[in-house]
Amino acid sequence: MTDEALEPSRTTYGAGWARWAWRTLTSMRTAVILLTLLAGAAVPGSLLPQRNVATNPGAVPSFYADHPGISPWLDRLSLFDVYASPWFAAIYILLLVSMIGCVLPRCVRLWGECRAEPARTPTRLSRMEHHRELRLESDAEEVLTRTATVLRRRGYRVVREGSEVRAEKGYLREAGNLMFHLSLLVLLVGVAGGKLFGFEGRAALVDGATFTNLRSSYDEYSPAALTRADAFTPFSVTLDKLEAEFELAGPRAGEPREFDAEVTYTLGDGTTGSTSIKPNHPMDVDGTKLFLTGHGYAPAVTVRDGTGETVFSGPVIFLPLENNFTSDGVVKVPNAEPTQLGFEGLFLPTAPTGDGDRSQFPGLIAPRLDLTAYTGDLGMNEGVPQSVYKLERSGLEEVAVGSLRVGETMALPEGAGSITFDGVSRFANFQIAYDPGKEISLVAAIALLIGLTASLVIRRRRLWLRVTKSDHGLTAELAGLSVTRRELPTSDLDHLERELLGLNESPERSMS
Amino acid sequence: MTWARLSDDLVIAAVIIFAIAFCLYAVSLALHSAGKRGKSVTSSATRVGSPSSGGSGTGVNDLPAEPSHGYRLTTRIASVLVVMGFLLNVMAVVARGLAADRAPWGNMYEFAIVGAAAITGAYLAGLRRYPIERLGIWVVGVVLVALGCAVTILYTPVDALIPVLKSYWLAIHVGAAIIAGGAFTVAAVMSVVQLVGRGRNGERDALMERVSYGLIVFAFPIWTFAVIAGAVWAEAAWGRYWGWDPKETWAFITWVFYAAYLHAQSTAGWRGRRAAWFSVLGYLAFLFNFVGVNMWVGGLHSYAGV
Ligand code: HEM
Question: Locate the ResB-like domain: which residues (chain A) (predicted)?
Fold first, then answer.
């Protein structure tokens, strides 16, 4: 590590350039520049929508739709994928290489210094920090011994030589600095572990339904590059009851206050039990964690077809559109006779008293289900996967609209059937995550913090004492040097000075 | 009187006290520059006499050799008022915590009043060791802006938290961030003064740099801790410890800028004004995170009552 970028040597041309490049890369100045680049490179990712930063998976497509001209260009520069982009990786990899090149030689030097003696006493102590001279009446031997004892007691490594004492402490500062920088590498290993072997998924569960940890149970599942098929820890979870409470009055009326999923589970070894999952309290099964991230309503309906047969019955998940839980969803009944049936619905947990299709409150006070009914071909036999939340309307004909309260039934024209609004269940959204690098990252982060604190709090410093005899008695010169950026604290020197002046007094006191 | 009401009144009282301190600091600066004009010969003589100190020794000031009695008196009274304002501010925070029955930093209003206390605390800690009272006017100015925004646009009555914020991690993570933020703020004020001065006053610059360096060295590990605690909390709340959410991203940017600052301090030729730029950049990133991200960018970190 050097501060100046050195000129390439002319004699050994290739090797000279290589050495120059390496020195430049591992210089402190490069570290500052690369850190600045890293900070700057992180900025666009927070201002533009990002693909794998999933608060809103639709953000990038909708940005594309709004800015069709510039989006392809931004995309080509990986600006919708900043943190996985080649240029972001280039910066942090260069930074880590530079860091290793900088820190490893220091490791070697520290190892040497740990076994070496404290540095030689400078000839002119008066040039050092906090230089002071004391007139002493005691014996040189006694002064030197006392100094050595005092400094050893204060944690210095001390060498006595002739009429000098030299001392040094704070080696741990360098060790802390190394520990800090190396933990950054370990942290990256931990992060990579999750990015390569983990997975993330989502599943929505209606009251009373059961989730079994299998690939097919996930509504959405995103594995990493090396996620193994046996990453699915066997267990199943049944949602017994989802409770949600909202602020009832005041300026924050409608804000969520409490929500909580009561579940029963069965683990792979057959043990069963029950627990509650709520925000900040996930359920952890051998490293696979279930988080409660959202909730909503699932109106229960019964559909009869033209033959009077019950062809569908049960709760249907409706996705909330806004904070008061106005929600939309669809019901598809492909097995209805004589024609297939489809319904688009809007659900309002607290319908307004007059007209209007916006819920007034997130709680379940006056539920209403607005439906549009379709007959015809749902288009489900073409082999193209369909969203369960959308109707493919091209083969359908709208036949009726209606607005139902709980218990009400809407009959379809021409004897095509009917739909009854039976009641309302709730559903819970679970985020399920498995991140095998997590523990490594945590350990690295703790080591990083300890190392950093040590390197910033501990001050490496040297102290020297030299005694000279003169006509008037003994002169002791004291001085110190801070090896780091921070000033040398005077406390150790003050303490030593007091102890040495104390030597002056004690004989007198014993005489009197 | 309820705790909530008491807290609101204490905030107002603190604003009044800080405003008086601000005026007194302004008066003292006026007295000082009047005194300097009268004694310009002495003052330049002292400056030539003492070479700019980069290393050791107690703080240096660019005051004329004999600061006038009026200057010393007004500065002293102003600083005492700052102590009083600080105490009132802290009491307001405590009362707010008692009223809400939780750590009183769950929305923007509360961040602002706790932040004001942290900034004043950092300034007073600096003042104990270094003669920085001439910068008091800037620090108190920032505090007044924070409290002023708090009582006017950010005010929210005491209320319960949304479920995801109900965690002791709120107290730990946000508390640490605010303490670090107080020190970062004062350091940034010092760095701005240093940069605006364009190196015309070597002694004052050296003092500014020592104080801001000390504050950043204090705050950086705390900020690091706040980021790590945030990651642990994010893991518990959302199932991933780092997701490049805008709030997380700006915390990271802040952290990297301050790391660059610390490196610059150990790089020959970068100490001084260049390093001061990193302190300012780091602070802008920090400020954007607390203000800009909450208001404009959004993400998972949304707080009630922004
Ligand atoms: C990966 C990004 C890096 C981060 C986050 C980082 C962070 C830090 C921090 C916070 C300090 C302050 C400790 C102190 O002042 O004592 C520090 C010190 C130091 N860093 Fe880094 N660093 C990084 C990369 C590098 C690189 C690439 C180099 C070498 C080229 C380097 C060399 C050093 C050295 C030599 C010190 C000690 C400075 C001194 O003795 O005052 N670091 N680093």
Answer: 28-486
Amino acid at A100: I
Residue A154, burial from CB neighbour count under 10 angstroms (0-12, 13-18, 19+): middle
* Complex ipTM value: 0.83
Which of A333, A344, A339 shows the shortest CA–CA distance to A306?
A: A339
A431 close to A202: Cβ distance less than 8 angstroms: yes
Between CA A402 and CA A346 the distance in angstroms is: 11
Encode burial over B216-252: b for 16+ CB neighbours within 10 A, e otherwise: bbbbbbbbbbbbbbbbbbbbbbbbbbbbbbbbbbbbb
**Cα distance from A429 to chain B (closest Cα, Å)?**
12
Q: Where in chain A is the domain with CATH 3.30.310.80?
A: 116-170+459-511
Would you call A282 and B239 a contact, using CB atoms and an 8 Å cutoff?
Answer: yes
Ligand 1 residue neighbourhood (C-beta within 6 Å)? A 1, 26, 28, 31, 35, 95, 98-99, 102, 177, 181, 184, 452, 455-456, 484-485; B 259, 262-263, 266
Nearest residue in chain A measured CA to CA from B262: A32
For residue B301, pLDDT beyond 70:
no
Chain B contact for A129, CB < 8 A? yes
With beta carbons less than 8 A apart as the criterion, state whether A431 and B164 touch.
Answer: no
* C-alpha B300 to ligand 1 mean position (Å): 32
- Residue A435 amino acid letter: D
CA distance A352 to A346: 13
Q: Which residues pair with A236 in a beta bridge?
A: A212, A266
Residues A250-267: tens digit of each pLDDT: 666 777 777 888 999 988
pLDDT at A67 over 70: yes
CA distance B238 to A54: 11
Q: Are B140 and B21 in contact, with CB atoms under 8 Å apart?
A: yes
* Cα distances (angstroms) measured from residue B277 to each of B143, B196, B281, B283: 22, 11, 6, 10
pLDDT at B95 over 50: yes
- Bridge partners (DSSP) of residue A474 are A136, A469
**HSE-CB for A5 with a 13 A CA cutoff:** 10
Written out in words, the top-level CATH class of the domain with range A116-170+459-511 is: alpha beta
pLDDT in tens, B144-161: 999 999 989 888 888 777
| Residue A473 main-chain phi, psi, to 5 deg | 135, -135
